[in-house]
Amino acid sequence: MTIDWSWISGHTDDLTTLTVSHLQAALSAVLLGLLISLPLAVVAHRVRPLRGFLLGLSNVLFTIPSIAVFVLLLPVSGLTRTTTVIGLTIYTLVVLLRNTVEGLDSVPTRTKEAAKAMGTRPLRTLLTVEFPLALPVIMAGVRIATVMSISLVSVATYIGDGGLGQLFTDGFQRNFPTPVIVGVVLTLLLAVVADALLVAVQYVLTPWTRRRA
Amino acid sequence: MYELFKNLGGWLTSGEQWAGPDGIATRLAEHLQYSLLATLVAAAIGLPLGLLIGHTGKGAFVAINLSSFGRALPTVGLVVLVFLASGLSMWPVYVALVALAVPALVTNTYAGMTAVDPDVKDAARGQGMRGHQVLLQVELPLALPLIMTGLRLALIQVVATATIAAYVSFGGLGRYVFDGLAQRDLVQVMGGAVLVAVIAVALDVTLAALQRFLFRHRTA
């Protein structure tokens, strides 16, 4: 199991393309997941009867194996990037939805009442009071969903996509370990960097949590 | 679309498809064997580790980082890597599945242990219980619900991922997915995927029922 360093230096362009494509797939899924779960979480938070149903549904979706999700989407969207992104998005939902609901739950009732007493309208309260206060819990979910998506993109290599996952198929078919090692290392690296960036974003977005400490 | 589902229904219910050495019954048994064995091995590693970290309070930082590292590790890459290192054996499958399950088990066991009320532990010590007695008779029973949740989570992930055995030429339900993809036989691919999803959900529901039965006397 030796690493062929000349292969790496000879393929920097391919590696860059694959890394970018990998990151694009994962980030699109997380963004799409947020776009779906933020409004759904508000509904689940406000309408009690729907809460169990929505959280339960996202749990059931999570039980379905990722490879099965990709495959079951084939008749709908075929061997395309769309299939990859939809499949990954389904996985982000369980974490994003649950954390957003929990985040909204954690906002103290008194704070919401104070906003109401000052004449703030419900939508404005949601956007300028509830969401910002729920942000730390929501961001914890975004971090988990991002790392998970980055790791899962490679499963889509079976349906011909998969970013860095293509290096695994390549190395497997040619019995050549270097691309596989490079793929694993780059995936881990992407996950670590993305996670660190999200921590930084949260730090900038929630200055009040620092002042208190 | 309708035609596809009709064929899928036919594939799943034909007796021919279920019988024989590459029939659904055999593949199902193989899939369960890989999943259960891997989860057992992972439990044998992850549970003591989680209990130890929770009991002593040492190494929590390592445990939390281990879990996020585990989440980021691409299973497909790991399988191929071990395959290239070890050649044609069951090692790649089990190494990848165990590596997938251990972090979930360690973090949930640890979370269960930290959720135990410190007053209860103090009371146990005050009554003269020794360290291992506190661990086995007080902390473990109280942490058990969260440990069970971790076990369920790990098992679902392992069952879902055991499809990967077929990628390195072994059996299990992944056989249908990969053979179907190679033969451009969408019915077979979807049949395999549906079966994996069904047993993942069925195992989870069974364990959830078991969990409710075991802890029926507890008030939350």
Automatic annotation (TrEMBL), chain A:
<feature type="domain" description="ABC transmembrane type-1">
    <location>
        <begin position="19"/>
        <end position="198"/>
    </location>
</feature>
<dbReference type="InterPro" id="IPR051204">
    <property type="entry name" value="ABC_transp_perm/SBD"/>
</dbReference>
<dbReference type="Pfam" id="PF00528">
    <property type="entry name" value="BPD_transp_1"/>
</dbReference>
<feature type="transmembrane region" description="Helical">
    <location>
        <begin position="180"/>
        <end position="205"/>
    </location>
</feature>
<feature type="transmembrane region" description="Helical">
    <location>
        <begin position="20"/>
        <end position="41"/>
    </location>
</feature>
<keyword id="KW-0472">Membrane</keyword>
<keyword id="KW-0813">Transport</keyword>
<keyword id="KW-1133">Transmembrane helix</keyword>
<comment type="similarity">
    <text>Belongs to the binding-protein-dependent transport system permease family.</text>
</comment>
<feature type="transmembrane region" description="Helical">
    <location>
        <begin position="79"/>
        <end position="97"/>
    </location>
</feature>
<dbReference type="InterPro" id="IPR035906">
    <property type="entry name" value="MetI-like_sf"/>
</dbReference>
<protein>
    <submittedName>
        <fullName>ABC transporter permease</fullName>
    </submittedName>
</protein>
<dbReference type="InterPro" id="IPR000515">
    <property type="entry name" value="MetI-like"/>
</dbReference>
<feature type="transmembrane region" description="Helical">
    <location>
        <begin position="133"/>
        <end position="160"/>
    </location>
</feature>
<feature type="transmembrane region" description="Helical">
    <location>
        <begin position="53"/>
        <end position="73"/>
    </location>
</feature>
<keyword id="KW-0812">Transmembrane</keyword>
Automatic annotation (TrEMBL), chain B:
<keyword id="KW-0813">Transport</keyword>
<keyword id="KW-0812">Transmembrane</keyword>
<dbReference type="InterPro" id="IPR051204">
    <property type="entry name" value="ABC_transp_perm/SBD"/>
</dbReference>
<feature type="transmembrane region" description="Helical">
    <location>
        <begin position="186"/>
        <end position="210"/>
    </location>
</feature>
<feature type="transmembrane region" description="Helical">
    <location>
        <begin position="153"/>
        <end position="174"/>
    </location>
</feature>
<feature type="transmembrane region" description="Helical">
    <location>
        <begin position="32"/>
        <end position="53"/>
    </location>
</feature>
<dbReference type="InterPro" id="IPR035906">
    <property type="entry name" value="MetI-like_sf"/>
</dbReference>
<keyword id="KW-0472">Membrane</keyword>
<comment type="similarity">
    <text>Belongs to the binding-protein-dependent transport system permease family.</text>
</comment>
<feature type="domain" description="ABC transmembrane type-1">
    <location>
        <begin position="28"/>
        <end position="207"/>
    </location>
</feature>
<protein>
    <submittedName>
        <fullName>ABC transporter permease</fullName>
    </submittedName>
</protein>
<dbReference type="Pfam" id="PF00528">
    <property type="entry name" value="BPD_transp_1"/>
</dbReference>
<keyword id="KW-1133">Transmembrane helix</keyword>
<feature type="transmembrane region" description="Helical">
    <location>
        <begin position="60"/>
        <end position="85"/>
    </location>
</feature>
<dbReference type="InterPro" id="IPR000515">
    <property type="entry name" value="MetI-like"/>
</dbReference>
<feature type="transmembrane region" description="Helical">
    <location>
        <begin position="91"/>
        <end position="111"/>
    </location>
</feature>
